[in-house]
Request: fold
Amino acid sequence: MLQRQYHYRLRSCVWELTLACCFSCKYCGSKAGAPRKNELSTEECLKVAGQLADLGCERVSLIGGEVFIRPDWATIAKALTERNVKVSVITNGYMFSDKLISQLKYVDIESVAVSIDGPEPIHDAFRQNGSFRRAIHAIDVLSESGIPVSVISTLHSRNASHLDELYEVLKRKNIFAWQLQACSPMGNASDAAFSTDISFENVIRFVVDHLKESEFRIGIADNIGYYTEAEGYLRGNPSGKAVFTGCRAGLSGIGIDSIGNVRGCEAMYDEYFIEGNLREKSLKEIWNDPDAFSYNRCFTPDRLTGKCKTCEYGRICAGGCRSYNYFSTGKMYESPYCAR
Reply:
């Protein structure tokens, strides 16, 4: 028990502060829009912030819904940064104002990631009319204010072929990174009138083709890959030496939703993955539970299925992204779309 308790070090957390959102995107994995009933209060959130810091969590990414709809978001973020936890925010970029910029500076935000999923017609078709221009404006305001800003794009069958067009827009912006991630068939995307299937190979080829010329980093999320010749560069390491070492859910990362449910990752948006609730147990109790996060903590290569079972890298990548596998095929230990 003691050996397990100290074996896993919590390094990062993705925290959904609210499910409230000014959008209802056609591929939103959490079906955001209205806030959940009985979301964590300010007082409860401040306790969670303290527990994250006490466990040594180094970095927290705040998400929604839309984070900035929650009136006390800055109070919660400040409670983290005051404890030397680095905080970033992922936003749709729709609600930016002078007051918001002042709040971001007040909480000493590390960075802000704005979601942009294609050129203007594509982006607006899946989000909201006018949302593309608002997101671009948010990028400009953030960069002019000295706040590091990046872009995240969620790829599916209707936008993955428009990466070159979006790149032409982004290369004129002062961003430090652009992350490409595969849209998972969960939430709104599970019954949408489009496919979440994309070619990992094509996405990787696009990144490789633009790596050297781009003034900002272009990388892929953990649900795209794996182990092509460009693997190291795709993981955001300029030396090219980085590799994907498997899903970190429950090993070094966790997800917390707006009513206090704890999962290994917030992309694991299913009750099956809930390890406990912070209204019933402390974060330390949940994290140190010897039976928690067993899908990763008890992983052995014999759990691999499909081609992953015979792949020479199977022991390292452990079959890829647990969430994407689960929602795509129902098989957690097999990545059927693996570029290798």
Summary: The first strand starts at residue 12 and ends at 16. The mean pLDDT is 93. The two ends are 38 Å apart (CA to CA). The CA atoms of residues 23 and 128 lie 7 Å apart.
